[in-house]
């Protein structure tokens, strides 16, 4: 068990600065998710913690100890890779035991630790199989098992669920969360899927182009985004943005309003034309187009009337729910 | 796959049978000639069915031969072919490993230098190579037979291509697991290359076995002759007469080891050529 501290961590490839200074203190046993669109530097950040990528400047500390120049194996971490990176010629047992063999752990103890992990992950019947004889979900579990048997101080997950189909992803997501709770190991988890981030994280880091736009608990980030990017990235369907110029009584910049906070009304703040409506059962998503061509989505209960396409509607909302952003995308309070 | 029926099927088989007979006939003649006596061969028409001197001719070839016992030549060839095949594989694996997994100054340059040697066949560099080997005092020795042929740009290139298809994450996972580079090489890369190695071994063994010009140049003692060049040495010079049954028995014997290697490693060989699973 350990804490992880990143201090003004930067990474450049040549002249491009892909990570522009990240600071965070991760508490012992905390589950932190790094989320952001592809190319925002989230994997690079994780790989710097793992030691697979060197930091250009700044510090990585694991349990208070500076590890910038320490080899991955000596950092007391375990990593789960996106494509699992299982050794194809080794059995499931050997895959899980390989790290321990290198550490020269005694054979009976290796067997015991692998058995325990296999039991935890329901992999016992498959220990003698080769990875290619397993399903995607099982391979994923083996990759987890390989991380668990090492009893590391920190788990690092690099988009571990992105190769699974949607249903399995939900199931594995729950399993990962339960497992992390049970083992209480500090974890860093990279994903581009904001639902994964919301459900797994104790705290999440929302990354945008090499910068941590916001760090906080998922619901806080959702309710109170710090930038226009975060407001747009977290939440599905995404936040509606409307030019302040179109509205009376708003200052310059743009306002953001979440789909569930907008309602259709006779007399609204702005007028919009219904493009199409998606009835999802429990709720209906109404997509509209405002005067300036701006797309606006309204999420409403299924009981409410669904307007016909082409109909013009007013849009109303509670002023308290409005988020205001300046030209640079920063939140104005 | 195209499925053929009736006449088409028979025609296909007829074509194949004629083709095989065409290739096989000279080998059959050589075999027949190795089982009869000298005067049967010299007097036309030549027999087309095996005679009764099989054991006698082969025993004579193996134990005494003409210049040197064929058993010795077989052994020489075997040492040379194994040395070349295994040496080439070991060196190519290591150099491909270096080129793919390590960043060092001149990495690209070295790769292209290795690649460049592909364009220089043995025959082009044979005179300077001979000079070097002679100065090292390696004439008439196994080292002399093997060393000049032990590096292979082709094999290096093949392994490089294979290593580049191995996902980077595998090397990273091994690094996180604590494997040092050579440990990764032996524990993970080598077992994964098994089928490629087998396929390459077959090709390189036959390449080594069939070397003709180089052994001809550097082995002057009959005891160091390899079998492929040894056959040529058995041909008479001047007024001697050729002992054809022995020569033909030697030819047949020269063919046996490559055939054994190909058949023995057929399964792995074909898997190595077609398998893409990582």
TrEMBL record, chain B:
Residues 74-265 form the ABC transmembrane type-1 domain. It is a multi-pass membrane protein. Keywords: Cell inner membrane, Cell membrane, Membrane, Transmembrane, Transmembrane helix, Transport. PROSITE patterns: ABC_TM1. It holds the Pfam family BPD_transp_1. The chain crosses the membrane at residues 7-31, 78-102, 109-130, 142-163, 184-207, 242-263. GO terms for biological process: transmembrane transport. It is found in: Cell inner membrane; Cell membrane. One of its GO terms (cellular component) is plasma membrane. Part of the ABC transporter complex UgpBAEC involved in sn-glycerol-3-phosphate (G3P) import. Probably responsible for the translocation of the substrate across the membrane. Belongs to the binding-protein-dependent transport system permease family. The complex is composed of two ATP-binding proteins (UgpC), two transmembrane proteins (UgpA and UgpE) and a solute-binding protein (UgpB). This is sn-glycerol-3-phosphate transport system permease protein UgpE. The lineage of its organism: Bacteria, Pseudomonadati, Pseudomonadota, Alphaproteobacteria, Rhodobacterales. The gene is ugpE.
């Amino acid at each position: 068990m350990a804490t992880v501290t990143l201090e003004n961590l930067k990474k450049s490839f040549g002249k491009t600065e892909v990570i522009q200074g990240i600071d965070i203190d991760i508490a012992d046993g905390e589950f932190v998710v790094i989320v952001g669109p592809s190319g925002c530097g989230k994997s690079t950040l994780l790989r710097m913690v793992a030691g697979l990528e060197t930091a250009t400047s700044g510090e990585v500390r694991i349990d208070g100890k500076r590890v910038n120049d320490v080899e991955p194996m000596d950092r007391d971490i375990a990593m789960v890779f996106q494509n699992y990176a299982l050794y194809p010629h080794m059995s499931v047992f050997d895959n899980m035991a390989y790290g321990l063999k290198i550490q020269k752990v005694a054979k009976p103890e290796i067997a015991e630790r692998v058995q325990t992990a296999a039991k935890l992950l329901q992999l016992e019947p498959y220990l003698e199989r080769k990875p290619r004889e397993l399903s995607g979900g099982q391979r994923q579990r083996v990759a987890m098992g390989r991380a668990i048997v090492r009893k590391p101080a920190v788990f690092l997950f690099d988009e571990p669920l992105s190769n699974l189909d949607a249903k399995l992803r939900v199931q594995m997501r729950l399993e990962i969360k339960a497992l992390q709770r049970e083992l209480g190991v500090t974890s860093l988890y990279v994903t581009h899927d904001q639902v994964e981030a919301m459900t797994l994280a104790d705290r999440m880091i929302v990354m945008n182009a090499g910068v941590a736009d916001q760090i906080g608990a998922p619901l806080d980030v959702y309710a109170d985004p710090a930038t226009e990017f975060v407001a747009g990235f977290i939440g599905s369907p995404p936040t509606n943005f409307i030019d302040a110029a179109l509205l009376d009584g708003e200052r310059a910049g743009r306002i953001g309003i979440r789909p569930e906070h907008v309602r259709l009304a006779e007399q609204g703040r702005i007028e919009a034309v219904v493009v199409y409506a998606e009835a999802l059962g429990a709720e209906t998503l109404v997509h509209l187009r405002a005067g300036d061509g701006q797309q606006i989505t309204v999420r409403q209960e299924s009981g409410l009337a669904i307007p016909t396409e082409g109909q013009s509607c007013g849009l109303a909302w509670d002023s308290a729910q409005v988020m205001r952003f300046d030209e640079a995308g920063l939140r104005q309070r | 796959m195209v499925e053929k029926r009736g006449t088409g099927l028979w025609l296909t088989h007829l074509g194949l049978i004629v083709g095989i007979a065409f290739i096989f006939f000279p080998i059959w003649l050589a075999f027949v000639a190795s089982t009869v006596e000298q005067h049967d061969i010299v007097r036309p028409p030549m027999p087309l069915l095996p005679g009764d001197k099989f054991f006698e001719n082969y025993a004579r070839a193996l134990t005494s031969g003409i210049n040197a016992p064929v058993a010795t030549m077989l052994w020489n060839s075997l040492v040379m072919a194994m040395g070349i095949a295994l040496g080439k594989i070991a060196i190519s694996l290591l150099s491909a490993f270096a080129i793919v997994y390590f960043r060092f100054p001149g990495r690209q340059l070295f790769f292209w230098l290795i690649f460049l040697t592909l364009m220089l066949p043995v025959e082009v560099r044979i005179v300077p190579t001979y000079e070097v080997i002679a100065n090292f005092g390696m004439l008439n020795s196994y080292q002399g037979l093997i060393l000049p042929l032990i590096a292979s740009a082709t094999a290096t290139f093949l392994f490089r291509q294979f290593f580049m298809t191995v996902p980077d994450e595998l090397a990273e996972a091994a690094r996180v697991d604590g494997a040092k580079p050579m440990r990764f090489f032996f524990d993970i890369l080598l077992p994964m290359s098994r089928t490629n190695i087998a396929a390459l071994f077959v090709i390189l063994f036959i390449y080594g076995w069939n070397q003709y010009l180089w052994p001809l140049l550097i082995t002057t003692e009959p005891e160091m002759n390899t079998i492929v060049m040894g056959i040529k040495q058995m041909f008479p010079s001047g007024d001697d007469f050729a002992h054809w049954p022995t020569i033909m028995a030697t030819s047949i014997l020269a063919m046996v080891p490559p055939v054994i290697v190909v058949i023995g490693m057929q399964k792995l060989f074909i898997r190595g050529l077609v398998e893409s699973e990582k």
